[in-house]
Design a protein that fits this description.
Largest sheet: 5 strands, antiparallel
Number of domains: 3
Strand content: 15-25%
Order of helices and strands: HHHHEEEEHEEHEEH
Number of helices: 7
CATH architecture of the largest domain: Orthogonal Bundle
CATH topology of the largest domain: Helix Hairpins
């Protein structure tokens, strides 16, 4: 009896020693491998940035490289444990197919990310309207596009939603046109109002002279004569000019006695 216990004890010690070494080796491979993956990914990103590769492509490539290398580290760790990775890959492939069928939407996002990278409707830093969100593009990853609106929120839009709808890129062109409609009363001086609007645009240093600013009577409304103004600015100056012109017109009209009508309703009481 003592001999059998000793035999089992020796066998247990042998197996525990053998598997302890494998477990330790697997853990070390994973820890060192993950560290190496981060270093390689970081180095690759720096090299791509140094080569002036588009930021959107850099972010996407970084995510893809990290995922692929980390998968290789996991497989190496499993192999160190003595697990047949060939069989594991077969099981992983079957599981991936099943998961892929269940997560068709997520895979569609990955495909949409590839389309965004290839066709480049926008890049990181552009101000866009896409997928129901409007703001500055902060990142494009495998599954989503991160957009920051002007109020400093963070909106995460699935890539499939970005590709499936219209995309308006306000930063694509170096120049943008600022359009406004201003109304004056029918009894006000038409020529004075037009001259005032032209002066406001001409005196704004951010308004470009080529193409030249434009002012014209665009509509005879129910309660006002409406002017349309158009001025070209650098894209970065768009909102500054947009809001400053509205304020400048109101102040100038008040100073020169030009009225800005507003809708009115006449109520008649029958006794």
């Amino acid at each position: 009896m003592e001999i059998e216990l000793s035999k089992y004890s020796d066998t247990a010690i042998t197996y525990s020693s053998e598997y302890s070494i494998k477990i330790i080796a697997a853990i070390l491979i994973f820890i060192i491998g993950k560290w190496a993956v981060k270093k390689i990914t970081s180095f690759t990103k720096k090299m791509m940035i140094k080569a002036n590769i588009d930021t959107t492509l850099v972010e996407f490539a970084e995510s893809l490289i990290y995922f692929v290398l980390l998968l290789m580290v996991v497989l190496a760790s499993l192999n160190a444990l003595g697990i047949n990775t060939t069989s594991f890959l077969a099981v992983f492939g079957a599981a991936s197919l099943a998961i892929g069928l269940a997560l068709q939407g997520s895979l569609a996002n990955v495909g949409a990310a590839v389309l965004i990278i290839i066709f480049r409707p926008f890049k990181v830093g552009d101000f866009v309207e896409a997928g129901g969100a409007t703001g500055t593009v902060e990142d494009v990853n495998l599954f989503s596009t991160i957009i920051a609106p002007l109020d400093n929120r963070t909106v995460i839009v699935p890539n499939a939603a970005v590709i499936s709808g219209n995309i308006t890129n306000y930063s694509k062109k170096p120049e943008r046109r600022v359009d406004h409609v201003f109304g004056i009363g029918y009894g006000d001086d038409l020529k004075l109002a037009k001259e005032t609007l032209m002066e406001i645009m001409a005196n704004n240093p951010k308004v470009l002279t080529d193409p030249a600013p434009f002012v014209a009577v665009s509509e005879l409304g129910e309660s006002s004569v409406n002017f349309t103004t158009r001025s070209w600015v650098n894209t970065a100056d768009y909102w500054d000019v947009y809001f400053s012109q509205i304020e400048a017109v109101k102040l100038a009209f008040d100073e020169k006695g030009i009225s800005i009508p507003f809708p009115q309703m006449d109520v008649h009481l029958n006794k």
